[in-house]
Design brief:
Largest sheet: 4 strands, antiparallel
Distance between the termini: 34 Å
Number of strands: 8
Radius of gyration: 23 Å
Helix content: 40-55%
Strand content: 15-25%
Structural class: alpha+beta
Length: 186
């Protein structure tokens, strides 16, 4: 005799929906988050180095030098923050433009998850993935990202699931079929 939980995970999980522009922008934001942090840190260091080098020429007085370092910190923080915000705006605009140009992405997509494979259906087309095809899988607050290459991912917004139980079923399927090193759940 099988209990209800074991039967629940043997049935395929069907998730369907349309990726919105907001979903796609969030995916891009998550995708380059690490890059943005590096740019912010590097720009801060470069601006700070510029101010420190220029402040050496001022005066040998410790008070003047300390004041110029503090002023340099403020300016470096300001300029690197402006660059960071500008980068976020550019990414948002670029992602919105890319979303508009991708007609397939704007269609209803159905995914059928089983322990053997993942089937993706868009219009009259079907694609099949095996669990080992995924490089890394992230759970985000609003979506799952299943990367099949460095820059290409299957996006599963959490609002496409009919219940929390379906989200948990997907997480269980992922845990059972993908190595732990490739999975980053919340």
């Amino acid at each position: 005799m099988h209990d209800d939980n074991s039967m629940q995970y043997q049935d395929p999980l069907i998730v369907s929906g349309t990726i919105t522009k907001k979903d796609f922008i969030n995916h891009n934001r998550y995708h380059i988050k690490k890059f943005n942090r590096r740019v912010l840190l590097l720009s801060f260091i470069l601006f700070m180095a510029y101010f420190v080098i220029n402040s050496r020429n001022l005066n040998e007085d410790l008070l003047d030098w300390t004041f110029s370092i503090i002023l340099g910190l403020i300016f470096a923080l300001f300029f690197s923050s402006v660059l960071f915000l500008l980068a976020k705006l550019i990414i948002r605009l670029r992602a919105g433009k890319e979303y508009k140009s991708d007609q397939l992405l704007q269609n209803d997509i159905t995914y059928i998850f089983s322990s053997e494979e993942i089937q993706q259906k868009i219009r009259k087309s079907s694609n099949y993935f095996e669990w080992h095809d995924f490089l890394i899988i992230y759970e985000r607050p609003d979506m799952f990202q299943l990367y099949i290459s460095r820059n290409k991912a299957i996006l599963l917004p959490k609002n496409h699931f009919r219940s929390k139980a379906e989200e948990e079923k997907l997480k269980k399927l992922i845990s059972e079929n993908v190595s732990k090193e490739k999975v980053k759940f919340l």
